[in-house]
Amino acid sequence: MLGFLLITGDKLGWVPHNSDQNAWLQVDLLVTRQLLAIETLGRGSGDIQYVRTYKVSFSQDSQQWTWYGHNGNTKVFVGNYNNHNSVRNNFDPVIETRFLRLYPLECYAYRTLRWELYACIKCEFVIVTGVWISRVYM
């Protein structure tokens, strides 16, 4: 899980070290949540860098992980095609979990990304962010 946040002016994003081909980004939601969707973006500004495809896994205890997919097949999500348009992928079925990991696969230049998770809590939508300030939507 080697990686770092790019925080130089407005150049925001998470990028793993190039030497780590099995890198992942993990979030702890602190309690079990129903995750409805994931939205990704590429690097905030500067060089064009983004993740084209990725997969996710989830866990209740951060020890035993399950790949998200259907009928035993791990789903590969289609990510971004540039670094300034967001791409939202819905979880169908929803994921009920405390921990989630995102594994960047294919990329343009570097595996740089920004992301948001959409969760349902008593029918209020909360965005849990990987890089920017959290917001609550109703």
UniProtKB/TrEMBL annotation:
Extract the SUPFAM superfamilies matched here: Galactose-binding domain-like (SSF49785)
Give the source's domain of life in one word.
Answer: Eukaryota
Q: Which CDD domains match?
A: FA58C
What Pfam families does this protein map onto? F5_F8_type_C
Please report the stretch or stretches of sequence annotated as the F5/8 type C domain. 1-120
- This chain's protein is named F5/8 type C domain-containing protein
Q: From which organism does this entry originate?
A: Capitella teleta (Polychaete worm)
